[in-house]
Amino acid sequence: MKKILYLLLIIFIGFVCYKLSPVYFLYFDKDKKEIIQNSNKILFIVKSDMSFNEIGDLLVQKNILKKAATINQLVEFKNYDDDTLKMGKYTLNKDWSNNKLVNQLYIMRNQNIVDLYIPSLRNLNDLVKKISSQISINKDVFIQLFNNETLQNKLGFTKETFPTIIIPNTYEVYSNINEKELLDLFRNHYQLFWNNSRIKKAEKIGLSQSEVSILASIVQMEQQLKFDEHSKIAGLYINRIKKGMKLQADPTVKYALNKPDLRRLYYKHLEVNSPYNTYKYKGLPPGPIWIPDSRVIDAVLNYEAHDYLFMCAQPSYSGYHNFSSNNNDHEKYKKAYTNWLSKEGIN
Question: For the domain 113-193, what is the CATH code?
Answer without folding.
Answer: 3.30.1490
